[in-house]
């Protein structure tokens, strides 16, 4: 397909496409230039036939040398014209056309703009930060305006207004553009009315009954509806008021926690708990393969227990897995809560592929290693799911448990292999427990999605933070309930 932005790995193909395109264009231009030269020469030939004597044509021809020259020029022109029709530029055009099929479609640009807006909001980049990023590839007023439009469509009004401001500034500085100040103003007005006319949520109505000031109501309303409360905090004089109202739990309760954790705020670990976390060498449940090469197991989180295995897979294995996946990577989807159909959404911006153990000894050996380390039955596990994230790529908070599957197919545990480091962003966070796991190449983390009682462990709600800089590769192995009856005993207690 022609969607690049949802996988940074696929974005890299664009460099090849760019090189091919410039080569084809170079060929085509030089063919055209040859033709132009021939045409110009032909024209020059015609023009240098002097027609001083045109009033007396016979005189022209009567001088044998002039006559000779005259006919010679005409023949030259004829030759040039024949040559022009002979040079075949249609081949170059065909080539150019076929290469241009690979040019990304417009929705890629929308997707990237959406990623920029998400990163900007989530990592709280203020206008100055954005400008610093922007100076490396100065955006035109039209480009700034496009980002503003996408921000508005994604209901990130704060960002939209910021980009409209940039657009205005550039227009003011006299940059050439299609967009006019008039259009910027129109969009600004429409954003304002969108914010003000948004429907009032019932919980907010109750609270606001106590306040008469209409202006405050308007601001609060937009804060609620568009989850701007975080930003409003920084508005003059609003801080105290907002804190006293505690709007945080209003809208998308998990979302604020998720975004804060992604920024590295609100990680709920304390030194006392931290001291109890240990690391050890382990041979799993006595697997012979681990006796001589024990696994490096680290307790990364206590409640719920999250273990990390260091050097779980090698760089070579990672290369094999990536190569096997590349041709299969397709936009990852989520099931629509209403229709149950698989859809592609901003909530999950990545591409993924499934690898079976028959595909390569490397996949089989990783599968075996997971069995050795966890002591769990792999016969009922799902295939390995490899994922590569895109620009601002993320996966919003979710449970790995899928509704409506037989008990034996429930995902009792998730093992997540990090196949890359990520320069900035891209952590795996657990909003209900305040945990954040940093991707570390070659390591794997594991947690149980079900309590020993078989109930869902709500502490395992987790998310993949937007990748800011870098490429993020992971592999998921979902281990299912079937076959684990004697390996992980059920218990009446809820303890993890
Ligand atoms: O990429 C990550 O950090 C987490 C991925 C994840 O949760 C999933 O694919 O279900
Ligand atoms: Fe997940």
From TrEMBL:
E.C. number(s) listed in UniProt: 1.14.11.2
InterPro entries: Oxoglu/Fe-dep_dioxygenase_dom (IPR005123), P4H_N (IPR013547), P4HA-like (IPR045054), Pro_4_hyd_alph (IPR006620), Pro_4_hyd_alph_FE2OG_OXY (IPR044862), TPR-like_helical_dom_sf (IPR011990)
Subcellular location per the Swiss-Prot or TrEMBL entry: Endoplasmic reticulum lumen
Cofactors: L-ascorbate
Gene Ontology terms, MF aspect: iron ion binding; L-ascorbic acid binding; procollagen-proline 4-dioxygenase activity
All copies of domain Fe2OG dioxygenase, residue ranges: 380-481
Metal-binding as UniProt keyword: yes
Domain of life: Eukaryota
Keywords: Dioxygenase, Endoplasmic reticulum, Glycoprotein, Iron, Metal-binding, Oxidoreductase, Signal, TPR repeat, Vitamin C
GO (cellular component) term, any one: endoplasmic reticulum lumen
Top-tier EC class: oxidoreductase
Xref: Gene3D superfamilies: 6.10.140.1460, q2cbj1_9rhob like domain, Tetratricopeptide repeat domain
PROSITE patterns the record matches: FE2OG_OXY (PS51471)
PANTHER family xref list: PROLYL 4-HYDROXYLASE ALPHA SUBUNIT, PROLYL 4-HYDROXYLASE SUBUNIT ALPHA-2
Function description: Catalyzes the post-translational formation of 4-hydroxyproline in -Xaa-Pro-Gly- sequences in collagens and other proteins.
Similarity annotation: Belongs to the P4HA family.
Listed name of the protein: procollagen-proline 4-dioxygenase
Organism: Silurus meridionalis
Classification of source organism: Eukaryota, Metazoa, Chordata, Craniata, Vertebrata
């Amino acid at each position: 397909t022609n969607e690049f932005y949802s996988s940074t790995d696929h974005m890299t193909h664009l460099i090849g496409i760019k090189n091919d395109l410039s080569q084809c264009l170079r060929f085509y231009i030089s063919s055209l230039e040859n033709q132009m030269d021939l045409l110009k020469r032909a024209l020059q030939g015609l023009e240098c036939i002097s027609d001083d004597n045109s009033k007396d044509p016979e005189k022209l021809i009567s001088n044998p040398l002039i006559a000779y020259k005259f006919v010679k020029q005409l023949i030259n022109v004829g030759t040039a014209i024949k040559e022009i029709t002979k040079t075949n530029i249609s081949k170059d055009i065909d080539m150019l056309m076929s290469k241009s099929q690979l040019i990304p479609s417009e929705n890629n640009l929308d997707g990237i703009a959406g990623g920029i807006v998400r990163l900007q909001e989530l990592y709280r980049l203020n206008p100055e930060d954005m400008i610093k990023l922007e100076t490396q590839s100065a955006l035109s007023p039209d480009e700034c305006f496009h980002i503003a439009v996408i921000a508005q469509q994604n209901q990130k009004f704060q960002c939209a207004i910021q980009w409209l401001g940039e657009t205005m500034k550039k227009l003011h500085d006299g940059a050439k553009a299609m967009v006019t100040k008039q259009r910027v103003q129109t969009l600004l007005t429409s954003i304002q009315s969108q914010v003000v006319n948004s429907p009032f949520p019932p919980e907010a109505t109750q609270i606001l009954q106590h306040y008469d000031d209409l202006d405050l109501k308007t601001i609060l309303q937009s804060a609620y509806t568009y989850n701007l409360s975080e930003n409003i905090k920084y508005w003059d004089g609003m801080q105290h008021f907002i804190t006293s109202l505690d709007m945080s739990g209003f809208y998308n309760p998990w979302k604020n926690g998720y975004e804060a954790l992604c920024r590295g705020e609100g990680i709920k670990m304390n030194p006392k708990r931290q001291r109890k976390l240990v690391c050890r060498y382990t041979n799993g449940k006595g697997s012979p393969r681990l006796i001589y090469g024990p696994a490096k197991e680290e307790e990364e989180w206590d409640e719920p227990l999250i273990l990390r295995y260091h050097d779980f897979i090698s760089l070579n294995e990672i290369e094999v897995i990536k190569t096997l996946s590349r041709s299969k990577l397709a936009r990852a989807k989520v099931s629509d809560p209403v229709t149950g159909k698989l859809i592609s959404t901003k909530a999950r911006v990545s591409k993924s592929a499934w690898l079976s153990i028959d595909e390569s000894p490397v996949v089989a050996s990783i599968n075996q290693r997971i069995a050795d380390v966890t002591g769990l039955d792999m016969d009922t596990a799902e295939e390995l799911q490899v994922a590569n994230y895109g620009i601002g790529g993320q996966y919003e908070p979710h449970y790995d448990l899928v509704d409506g599957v037989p008990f034996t197919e429930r995902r009792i545990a998730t093992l997540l292999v990090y196949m890359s480091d990520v320069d900035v962003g891209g952590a795996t966070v657990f909003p209900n427990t305040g945990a954040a796991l940093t991707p570390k190449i070659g390591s794997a983390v594991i947690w149980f999605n079900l309590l020993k009682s078989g109930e869902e462990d709500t502490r395992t709600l987790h998310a993949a933070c937007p990748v800011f800089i870098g490429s993020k590769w992971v592999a998921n192995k979902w281990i299912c309930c079937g076959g684990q009856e004697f390996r992980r005993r059920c218990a009446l207690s809820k303890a993890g």
